[in-house]
Design goal:
7-stranded antiparallel β-sheet; mainly beta; 2 helices; single chain
């Protein structure tokens, strides 16, 4: 027997003509997609203790340019970083001097952190970049696909300087951890409930 199924027919009707096992798989997939769409993301964002983290403007190579690093203190066994001074504060990345497995986490690129606003994961649509303005170091979230989208100033060092500088969030921004259901994952969100263009 041959069935003709028009593209406009609902997936539920199509599933009736599939073998039972395939129908069950299709139902599960539709439910998952429905849930992901309703949440705006496959993942959740859960709070962290921000006292255990520091955002850093870290020099690249000779130091002409910088990138965002995030260091996390996971245990009290040994200090992962030290911060001194102000405007800008200097960060000593102590974790680079010992095997920090189980003691510290270091997030150094888009695999370790991304932008999230409300329920939307924006990691593929926004890039986090440290920019030297001449008088400050700013952490910017800039659109990668659509230049008409807003750019956000996320954090600042509070002054010019070189080396590893602490970045402090602008009002409304925070850190959260990615979670899948009840399982927390090794990915950090630069997070805000909502944000206005800068």
């Amino acid at each position: 027997m041959t069935f003709t199924i028009r593209a406009a027919q609902p997936l539920a009707v199509m599933a009736r003509f599939l073998p039972a096992a395939t129908g069950l798989l299709l139902s599960g997939a539709l439910a998952s997609l429905s849930t992901a769409h309703a949440q705006g993301s496959l993942f959740n964002a859960v709070p962290v203790d921000e006292a255990n983290f520091v955002l850093v403007s870290a020099p690249i190579g000779s130091g002409a340019r910088s990138q965002l690093n995030i260091y996390e203190q996971r245990s009290s066994k040994r200090a992962c970083f030290a911060v001194s001074g102000a405007s800008p504060a200097i960060v000593d990345p102590l974790l680079s001097t010992f095997d920090f497995s189980g003691i510290c986490n270091r997030y150094i690129d888009g695999n370790g952190y991304s932008l999230r606003i409300g329920g939307d994961d924006l990691g593929t649509r926004y890039r986090l970049t440290v920019v030297n303005t001449g008088t400050d170091m700013e952490l910017l979230a800039t659109p990668t696909r659509n230049p008409s989208q807003p750019t956000f100033v996320v954090a600042r060092a509070g002054g010019a300087g070189s080396g590893f500088l602490k970045l402090s969030f602008e009002p409304g921004w925070s850190l959260k951890r990615r979670a899948y259901g009840t399982k927390t994952l090794g990915h950090i969100y630069i997070y805000r409930d909502g944000a206005a263009a800068e």
